[in-house]
Amino acid sequence: MTLQRQIGFWLGSLAVFVLFLVVFRDILLPFIAALVLAYLLDPLADRLERMGMGRLAATIVILVFFLLFFVLALVLLAPLLGQQLAGLVARLPQDASRLQELLMERGAPWLERFGGGDLAKEAQNSLGNLVGEATKWIGGLLQSLWSGGTAIVGVFSLLVLTPVIAFYLLADWDRMVATVDGWLPRAHRDTIRGLLREMDTAIAGFLRGQALVCLLLGAFYAIGLSVIGVNFGALIGLISGFLSFIPYVGSLTGLVLSVGVATVQFWPDWTWPLAALGVFLVGQFLEGNIFQPKFVGDSIGVHPVWLMFALLAFGSLFGFVGLLMAVPLAAIAGVLCRFALRQYLASNLYRGAPVPPPKEVVVKVDLER
Hints:
The protein is mostly helical. The protein folds into 2 domains: 26-177, no CATH class; 188-350. It has 13 helices and no strands. α2 (29-50) packs across α12, α3 (55-148) crosses α9 (249-266) and α7 crosses α12. The longest helix is centred in the first third of the chain and has 94 residues, at 55-148. Residues 145-153 have low confidence and may be disordered.
């Protein structure tokens, strides 16, 4: 097969894949969630197999314990988080307005000193518009994710179908991998296997490692904010931990929410807002110096800017399904781009056409003369 036909084949396959996502995006959520779950649990199943347990038995044991843990966490945390979420949504506009008033009370004298009363009024109007736009944007984002994901598929179908699909995928995982490996082109099998191993390292390093980092950070933030008595501290901490897979977004969101809520709650005492700030500073230290190096390391190979672009792009196009697919596809795209760059740097297109060696000049000598 010529290079042009190979490029045409892979571009056509990519177009079919994108068309498939567009057509079936409304029903893909339980399947994508089950695929991610099976991928995350496959190393544990392999370990149980090495201990002498059959693949089917290992799959049953893993999923039973996972479901028990999930149901237990849901029963214990759902009432608390539901209550805090309702309270936070109800009080968010009021707290935002109160925080705006406090900022203007402290900042107005400085603004009047340097720019007069008009500058203070303009700053107040701008701050009010900013708070209003931020609240509207957060509401629109949540509504978009909900309409693009669980609202259409249904929470019930997600909770029921995902474990069933994950069971079949996890039980047949090794067989599916071997089948796909048998489909690889013979001439390029070693190259494709190397790329797939690099993709697996990048995806596993992020999904498995970053999932554990998010869980640890969420628990730390929730416990820390609850201990110092911040309203909705458990909810804010878990939201911050969940959003930590987006670089800087989780910590910044939790920091703004916790310090803002603590300021309104404890004003004029600055001790507890500073304590909330300290919780997130300690969390950032733990994430950057302990959690990330230990559980994630340098195996991701995905630049934070590229990751944020992928999350926003796929979330906008496919809703919650797109968010689940964004990280693996971003890692795969990064591996392919690095491979293409290596091929380019090793090609004559980059190095230039090789200079042919000079032709040998043969001089014939007539010995008879």
